[in-house]
Amino acid sequence: MKLPVAELHVHLEGTLEPEMIMELAHKNGIALPYESLDDLRSRYEFTSLQSFLDLFYANMVVLCTAEDFTELTLAYLERAAASGVRHVELFFDPQAHTSRGLALGEVISGIRAGLAEGQTRFGISHQLIACFWRHAPASEAMELLIELVRDDHDIDGIGLDSSEVGFPPELFTEVFAYAREHGFRVVAHAGEEAGPDYIWQALDLLKVERVDHGIRCLDDPQLVKRLVAEQMPLTVCPLSNVRLRAVDTIEVHPLPHMLEAGLNVSIHSDDPAYFGGYLDANLAAVVNAFNLDIDTQAQLARNSFTATFLEAEAKVKLLAEVDTWLSAKK
Ligand code: HPA
Ligand code: ZN
Predict the structure, then answer these.
(1) 260 has catalytic annotation
(2) Whose CA is nearest to atom 4 of ligand 1?
(3) Ligand 1 atom at shortest distance from the alpha carbon of 56
(4) 307 CA to middle of ligand 2, Å?
(5) Among 40, 113, 184, 186, which is disulfide-ready with 34 (CB 3.0 to 4.6 Å)?
(6) Atom of ligand 1 minimally distant from the CA of 164
(7) Which one of 50, 158, 235, 271 would you pick to mutate in the ligand 1 pocket, going by the greatest count of ligand atoms within 8 A of its CB?
(8) 247 alpha carbon to ligand 1 midpoint, in Å?
């Protein structure tokens, strides 16, 4: 039995595998600048967050219809089920699709159809989080948010992603205030490449309920104290951090220091089709690098469930699955 976990940091578009990129391009008559699957694969070497984002945005143009989003969501959930995921709070980038002329309703209904079918087929519960692009103007995010509210689109929360350095959370203070007033749960990427000041802003100005990545918090002891005191969830993605050069190697990843400091961390996959593995591979990477014992592994899984936006009753059920896993291991 795989360790049961909640996946709280995965971008749907980051689960688009190279084979599916080629298939959808063919189906939708999209000309891609790659000669072959191998040529596409040869481009998966990144030097920074931006070098990844350039390829990530270029590839998602193959997603054209609601059915494409349903197919992608279901393919992800099948793989997630095999890696122990029991609940997912899925990110997607609306602007990546509306900027290409797709209707918001098409994108959301396509993803929702996949999530509903995945719940039946694989027993994975879900929430859906629309992430705003921090490299685009906050006014664009606000317009989109107003549309989400006005047309009553089925979204549980909002997040903030894309290029980090130079686009501080403070730019989105009003957008997040509006989102909170309208009942959305709120999360933001912060402290992936940029420093602790971005995490402070995410907490104080955006009033986030989870911080995505957050690994740079260790540069600021006062911030660590605050995050520990509040038990603020940090969704850490080890293979992403290595592949985007936020850390040099898995062996020097700050996870052990984060655990030692008492931070509320859990392990996630970010963009698994790009970074070499789904949630199970991310867990395996840190378990192997740091010899994490089964109690620590169980703690990481419990942290993932307590950090979800689920009701208490659902959390209790999922937490019990971790206890079952642990008893079977002992
Ligand atoms: N950081 C910021 N934006 C993203 C990421 C990430 O790791 N993945 C997809 N969009
Ligand atoms: Zn991310």
Answers:
(1) no
(2) 162
(3) 9
(4) 16
(5) 40
(6) 2
(7) 271
(8) 15
| Ligand 1 atom having least distance to the Cα of 213 | 7
Instruction: Read off the tokens for 82.
Output: 């095999």
pLDDT digits (tens, 9 = 90+) for 182-200: 999 999 999 999 999 999 9
Q: Which domains, and CATH codes, for the chain?
A: 5-329 (3.20.20.140)
User: pLDDT by residue (tens digit) across 202-230?
Assistant: 999 999 999 999 999 999 999 999 999 99
